[in-house]
Write a structure and sequence with these properties.
Belongs to the CAND family. The chain is mainly α. The chain has 7 domains: about 120 residues, Leucine-rich Repeat Variant (Alpha Horseshoe), CATH 1.25.10; about 90 residues; about 100 residues; about 140 residues, Leucine-rich Repeat Variant, CATH 1.25.10; about 140 residues, Leucine-rich Repeat Variant, CATH 1.25.10; about 170 residues, Leucine-rich Repeat Variant (Alpha Horseshoe), CATH 1.25.10; about 130 residues, Son of sevenless (SoS) protein, Chain S, domain 1, CATH 1.20.870. About 70% of the residues lie in helices and about 0% in strands. The protein has 61 helices and 2 strands. It has a two-stranded antiparallel sheet.
């Protein structure tokens, strides 16, 4: 402490030096000291430092003054409160000084102090704000000195934007000081007053806000001075921008006034009116709805407002004329772009307003294509560059809005045929877009050309193939922009990006006639000195090679041979160079890989030069991964490229990669090795393969199933082509595979590749891996379980999932060796009979018999049915389920034999009905997998259908659900006949039957396109009419089905939402008639029979946020979310999740309702559980608090929410309650680590 004081005293002494350099250096050193976190000043040092810095503000040297001001920032947080007050007091006094320089430096000092004040030290901030605010209000009201006024307004804006809520007692006086300034003769004063008013309305109370709007409207009503009218319109726009959530209720009064002033012949006023409209559209989405069409009309009118310029009808002129007229155009532009012409600002404001409307009104997309799109296209000819760019942006917004409807269109062919869909209209307008744009591609203006390419890129992304017929019109423009004299680096990069997009999204033959025009500029771009252009050009070149000679087409009439060598040569130059940018190196490798893969048969002599370079790149740590991917492409080429020259050296290098701790490299290398083994086996020696095999055992592990899968695929490929190398390694590899088979994580592609490996291994007939050897090694652990432990815990040594995996492996081996099938099944049946009390053996034997029976007809074993049915009586639920699976699977092997048997058992064995229905479900699921298997099931469908409907009124809900799933899966097989039958049962008198039918419909919906979709779209409305069913359970099931449709295939229900949403919202209400009291001994317990259906309704609402947000009235939606915030525990948890989603998806709507949303959250967080409650009650309340706090954190992240008085109060309450503060800080930390929102397409659709 003493040393710090001494050092500071030393610096202060130097600050009094007459030498300005001494003063400057001392002040600089002081700043360095103040920025250290560890510095602590005693009272005396504090006083002296503050005094000296304030004195230095009046220093004669400007640089010393500036440094002194900068020191105030860190100093504020290092000294005691009264010292900060002294600083502020002095600065305020200086603000009204006669010396202009001192005034300026003091105002900068005040801004610095305000920006450095910590929002957490509330008392200090409040004291200082109050001290400054009164002085500022006086300075603003005093009009003698404009510069003082301007500075005061600036500082007041800073104060209000950071600490508006702490100045509530001053809001009235601030407003009274600001309002007269809107009529100030100085424009700068008006502008800064508007900014300050904008910040004021974010935190002022409602009465003050209403008064402000009243004053502005009164002034507008009686004002005749156009200049002040402009200011008031700007003020209204600023208020709606900053406080749109409060402005909505005044919109009906404001709109007619702004529309009226829009008609006044004053371009500047019009511009401000259009800015106001844009602000209304973005910030008051619900309230502006009735006025959108009016605003659109005005925008379209003023988008064409150019009174000083006559646009000739250029449509008849060809592009040559355009070139010739370039200079004339420029002259005429100069002639009309005089300073008085403000009409371009009106046009630009119109374009921006249209962009706002298009971006926020997805539901009007069809109308936009009819009304707005043609006008925007016609205005692409705009003469003013800035306006033209904004028109392009508006059109891009329109195309982006079309993207979601494209994805729904692709799900159903009949939607494509809608006569007037947005997509159809866009297709019809595409020729007009090209006609309007292609001439601009030859303009001198780079900004215009970039805008054109952006529009075209978005068009191609939305409508792949849209430019197929228009390529001849676009190619000259592409050539022009790739030329050196016409373009900047960015222009070339944008052109190449567009070209890449076009090549990717169009069929190859579209370009064949233009290749000769495209290759020279591309080759030139690859040789460009700027690495970014080279890199982008190589990417385009790679795509062009695929277009030049598509390998998936047998033969092309196009002669590509003349282009092979130019492309190869220009890429080779980049491939050889070692001193180039990393990105260029990687893209040169990838591009050369594509060239060899597609054109290698014309480059046989060149391969001698090129392949050794690949070998070098493979040895380089930086380029090895890219080279592995490129070689994979080459090795997989149907042209059978000769890789023999590099195989010998590359195999050991690739083997070494499998040891590296680099996952992507391992994955790439395994894929490459697999391709090489399949396609180049004649060039691979046993030693090469052994080098690889040694590295494989460590890769087979449950810690990375993808690598395990590729490793086993590679082993399968090796075992098919060379058996010898596997002799020695089986001992190392097989134990790893047998370990993996016991993993509960093994499934999907990894399991399939294991099955293929076993099948391939057993066919090698190598010693030690015969059928019996492998069967013994697979089943040994199960026998060991039986030997080691008693039956009660026998099955816990191996995970349940492992029984299924081992059974599949045994079945795979048996299918490969079919003569072993009957003996091994007999063996399993024997174990089923003899070891009835050993669950693990029973379970495995049943699963294995089932898996084998799927592929091999076991009907020749007479006792099979009896033994399987006996297992239905087991004490263990798992064995029963396995028996049900086994019976279903065995039936698949011989349907005519087993399916009638299963159906008769379902009818005759009511006690086993549930399990037998599961067997039936297994049969239907497996048989509906392919057209061939469906054909086998076809003769039985009617019988199964009838039987299922006999049981659809079963009182057991579990049984009904299985019946419903079977009905749903059968309907998918023959939707044309069975869906109408299913629908007919909706009129059944039995509520149980109706609920089964609706559940069955749910099982026909999947997230993949299905033939049933078009039929389902026509009748899903009838199924969902059950939302009005008198029976509670039927309504609940209908909600579950609706939720499934909204999640998996939203296109089915999007158009029905208008009729469904009222029913859905109706089910979110608490119904008193469904709440009953149940006596439990001396206690009374409340039971709410409506809870399940309310939960189902809120789950539907949550799903709709993801899939159909653009079709929802968000304010109506929020009404029901508010109700949910006060409901039962389960529903509160759901609504908290919804709030988090809503805060990011439609922040402006949430902001408007924020006061009603915060209150329930506060109630939850401050509720105390009774002291004598059970532990679960405390845990529930903690979980509720955590979720409510997470929702509050999400609300706090909404822009401007932190200015709301209720939010500020709750935040203060949280910070003053220790346990809530700890919880809140933990949640904020979690949020900050997961703020990387992946939905880049999160639009505010509120």
């Amino acid at each position: 402490m003493a040393s710090v004081s001494y050092h500071i005293a030393n610096l202060l002494e130097k600050m009094t030096s007459s030498d300005k350099d001494f003063r400057f250096m001392a002040t600089n050193d002081l700043m360095v000291e103040l920025q250290k976190d560890s510095i602590k000043l005693d009272d005396d040092s504090e006083r002296k430092v503050v005094k000296m810095l304030l004195k230095l503000l009046e220093d004669k040297n400007g640089e010393v003054q500036n440094l002194a001001v900068k020191c105030l920032g860190p100093l504020v947080n290092k000294v005691k409160e009264y010292q900060v007050e002294t600083i502020v007091e002095t600065l305020c006094n200086n603000m009204v000084s006669d010396k202009e320089q001192l005034r300026d430096i003091s105002s900068i000092g005040l801004k610095t102090v305000i920006s450095e004040l910590s929002p957490t030290s509330t008392n200090l901030v409040a004291t200082i704000c109050k001290k400054i605010t009164g002085r500022l209000s006086n300075a603003i009201a005093k009009q003698e000195d404009i510069s003082v006024q301007l500075e005061a307004l600036d500082i007041l804006s800073d104060l209000l934007s950071r600490f508006g809520a702490l100045l509530i007692s001053f809001h009235l006086s601030i407003q009274e000081a600001l309002l007269p300034q809107l009529a100030s003769p100085r424009l700068a004063v008006r502008k800064r007053s508007i900014t300050a008013i904008g910040y004021l309305v974010m935190s002022c109370n409602q009465n003050l806000f209403n008064k402000l709007i009243d004053v502005l409207l009164e002034e507008l009503a009686q004002n005749t001075n156009t200049s002040t009218v402009r200011t008031y319109i700007q003020a209204i726009a600023a208020i709606s921008r900053q406080a749109g959530h409060r402005f909505g209720e005044h919109l009906e009064r404001v709109m007619p006034v702004v529309v009226q002033y829009c008609a006044v012949e004053d371009d500047e006023l019009r511009e401000y009116c259009l800015h106001a409209f844009e602000s209304f559209v973005r910030r008051c989405p619900k309230e502006i709805s009735p006025h959108v069409s009016t605003i659109v009309k005005l925008c379209l009118k003023y988008l064409c407002h150019d009174p000083n310029y006559n646009y000739d009808d250029d449509d008849t002129e060809d592009s040559m004329d355009m070139e010739r007229c370039d200079d004339d155009d420029n002259d005429s532009e100069d002639e009309y772009s005089d300073d008085d012409d403000m009409s371009w600002k009106v046009r630009r404001a119109s374009a921006k307003c249209l962009e706002a409307i298009i971006s926020t009104r997805h539901e009007m997309l069809l109308e936009f294509y009819k009304v707005i799109s043609p006008v925007l296209i016609s205005r692409f000819k705009e003469r003013e560059e800035n306006v033209k760019v904004d028109i392009f942006h508006a059109y891009i917004a329109l195309l982006r809005q079309t993207r979601p409807s494209i994805s729904t269109v692709n799900l159903g062919i009949e939607t494509m045929e809608l006569e007037e869909g947005p997509v159809t209209l866009l297709k019809q307008q595409t020729p007009h877009i090209i006609k309007a744009l292609h001439r601009h591609l030859r303009e001198k203006s780079i900004k215009t050309r970039q805008g054109c390419f952006l529009v075209l890129t978005e068009l191609v992304t939305v409508l792949p193939g849209a430019l197929s017929e228009h390529m001849p019109a676009l190619i000259p423009g592409i050539q022009f922009s790739l030329g050196d004299k016409n373009s900047s680096s960015n222009m070339k990069i944008d052109t190449l990006t567009f070209l890449n997009c076009v090549l990717t999204h169009h069929p190859p033959e579209v370009f064949h006639s233009h290749i000769a025009a495209l290759v020279p500029p591309l080759v030139h771009a690859v040789g460009d000195v700027f690495y970014k252009i080279t890199s982008e050009a190589l990417l385009v070149l790679q795509q062009l090679v695929k277009v030049l000679r598509p390998l998936d087409q047998q033969s092309t009439p196009f002669d590509f041979v003349p282009f092979v060598h130019p492309l190869y040569e220009c890429t080779l130059v980049r491939l050889k160079a070692a001193d180039i940018d990393q990105e260029v190196k990687e893209r040169a490798i990838a591009c050369m890989g594509q060239i060899i893969s597609n054109l290698g048969d014309y480059l046989e002599s060149e391969l001698q030069v090129c392949l050794p370079i690949f070998l070098d790149r493979l040895r380089n740590e930086i380029t090895r991964l890219t080279t592995v991917k490129a070689l994979t492409k080459v090795a997989g080429s149907p042209l059978k490229i000769n890789l023999k020259p590099i195989l010998g050296e590359s195999m050991p290098i690739l083997a070494s990669f499998l040891r590296k701790n680099h996952r992507a490299l391992k994955l790439g290398t395994l894929t490459l090795l697999d391709t090489l083994v399949k396609n180049y086996v004649e060039h691979l020696t046993q030693d090469m393969i052994k080098t690889v095999l040694i590295e494989l055992p460590p890769l087979i592990s449950e810690s990375d199933l993808h690598i395990s899968q590729l490793t086993m695929s590679l082993l399968t490929s090796i075992s098919k082509v060379q058996k010898q190398p596997l002799l020695n390694v089986t001992d190392a590899i097989l134990p790893e595979i047998l370990n993996l088979v016991h993993s509960p994580l093994l499934q999907g592609a990894a399991l399939n590749s294991m099955l293929e490996f076993f099948q391939s291994l057993v066919t090698t007939k190598l010693p030690g891996v015969t059928y019996r050897d492998l069967l013994g090694r697979l089943t040994a652990p199960i026998c060991a379980v039986n030997g080691q432990q008693n039956q009660s815990s026998g099955s816990h040594l191996i995970h349940k999932q492992a029984y299924h995996s081992i059974a599949k492996c045994v079945a795979a081996l048996t299918v490969t060796c079919p003569n072993e099938a009957l003996p091994v099944v007999q063996q399993f049946l024997q174990e089923l009979k003899s070891k009835r009390n050993v669950d693990s053996i029973q379970l495995f034997a049943l699963l294995a018999v089932g898996e084998i029976g799927k592929h091999i007809d076991l009907s020749s074993i007479p006792e099979l049915k009896t033994v399987l049915l006996d297992s239905f009586s087991s004490q263990s639920e798992e064995v029963k389920t396995a028996a049900s699976f086994a019976l279903g699977s065995v039936a698949i092997g011989n349907l005519p034999e087993y399916l009638p048997f299963v159906l008769s058992e379902i009818e005759n064995q009511p006690k086993r009905q549930y399990l037998l229905l599961h067997s039936l479900k297994e049969i239907i699921s497996c048989q509906s997998a392919s057209p061939a298997t469906v054909k086998l099931l076809q003769p039985f469908i009617q019988n199964v259908w009838s039987m299922l409907f006999n049981h659809c009124e079963c009182t057991e809900e579990g049984t009904r659900n299985v019946v419903a799933e079977c009905l749903g899966k059968l309907t998918l097989i023959d939707p044309g006949h069975l869906l109408p039958e299913l629908k007919a049962y909706l009129s059944s008198d039995s509520p149980l039957a109706r609920s089964t039918v609706v559940t069955a419909m749910k099982f026909t919906i999947s997230d993949q396109p299905q033939p049933i979709d078009s039929l389902l779209r026509g009748c899903i409305g009838d199924f969902l009419k059950t939302l009005k069913d008198p029976d509670l359970n039927v309504r609940r099931v209908a909600l579950v089905a609706f939720n499934s449709a909204a999640h998996n295939k939203p296109s089915l229900i999007r158009d029905l939402l208008d009729s469904i949403l009222p029913e859905l919202y109706n089910e979110t209400k608490v119904r008193k008639e469904l709440i009953r009291e149940v006596e439990m001994g001396p206690f009374k317990h409340t039971v709410d029979d409506g809870l399940d259906i309310r939960k189902a309704a809120f789950e539907c609402m949550y799903t709709l946020l993801d899939s159909c947000l653009d079709r929802i009235d968000i304010f109506e939606f929020l009404n029901h979310v508010e109700d949910g915030l006060r409901d039962h525990y389960d529903i509160k948890m759901l609504t908290y999740l919804m709030l988090v989603r809503l805060a990011s998806l439609c922040p402006s709507a949430v902001l408007q309702r924020i006061e009603r949303l915060v209150d329930p959250l506060r109630v939850t967080c401050t509720t105390k559980v009774k002291a004598n409650s059970v532990k679960q009650e405390f845990e529930k309340q903690d979980e509720l608090k955590r979720s409510a706090m997470r929702a509050f954190a999400a609300l706090l992240a909404v822009p401007d929410a932190d200015k709301n008085p209720l939010m500020i109060d709750f935040l203060a309450q949280i910070k003053s309650t220790p346990d809530l503060q700890v919880l809140f800080e933990g949640i904020q930390k979690d949020c900050s680590t997961t703020t990387t929102i992946t939905d880049t397409y999160l639009m505010d659709i509120s």
